[in-house]
Amino acid sequence: MASLNKIFMIGNLTRDPELRYVPSGAPVATFGLAVNRTFVTQHGDKKDEVCFVRVVVFGKQAESCSQYLTKGRPVFIEGRLQYRAWEQDGQKRSTLDIIADRVQFLGSPVKPGSGSEETPDAQKETFAEEAPVDNIKPGEEAPF
After folding, report:
1. Is 113 left (phi over 0), alpha (psi -120 to 50) or beta?
2. Do 26 and 59 touch, CB atoms closer than 8 A?
């Protein structure tokens, strides 16, 4: 039986990434993502709906996210869903996380007037592993 676990999301960070290191020394970053959806009800009313998800990123990409992303910044996430369950203080708990294979930074790197500016070289480094969409030839498949 075939199966597929792939997710693509575009949303805004609900909080700054939290970077930590597992005992092996590998970096892990987590952050919240808000994904908005606008739709029209049967009665013609326009409604907004927000879905909040937790994103987990590993490796060098985790360090880049921690360094360059801040609350409110838009991002494109490509990854998979992972369900976890555990018991805490006698209560069963569970969560559904997005394990990111790729995080692409969208929008401007800093808020106007914040005083800290990202250099163009730093932004290029962040995208170093990704193929630019402009270089895709007709008939080729996009990298996302």
Report:
1. left
2. yes
Q: How far apart are CA 135 and CA 50, in angstroms?
A: 34
**CA 2 to CA 85: how far, in whole Å?**
25
What gap in Å lies between CA 78 and CA 102, rounded to an integer? 5
Those residues whose C-beta lies under 8 Å from the C-beta of residue 62, and which sit 6 or more positions away, are 17, 19, 27, 28, 29
Radius of gyration of the chain (CA): 18
pLDDT of 74 reads 96
pLDDT mean values, one per 10 residues, the chain (144 residues)? 95 96 95 94 92 96 95 96 94 94 85 49 37 37 34
- Strand bridging mode 18-21 / 91-105: unpaired
The structure tokens listed for 30 are 């987590």
Which token pair is 13? 């960070």
Q: 3-class DSSP state for residue 135?
A: helix
Write the class of the CATH domain 7-135: mainly beta
Domain spans in the chain, listed from the N-terminal domain onward: 7-135
Does this model's pTM top 0.85? My answer is no
Tokens 């970096």 -> residue:
27
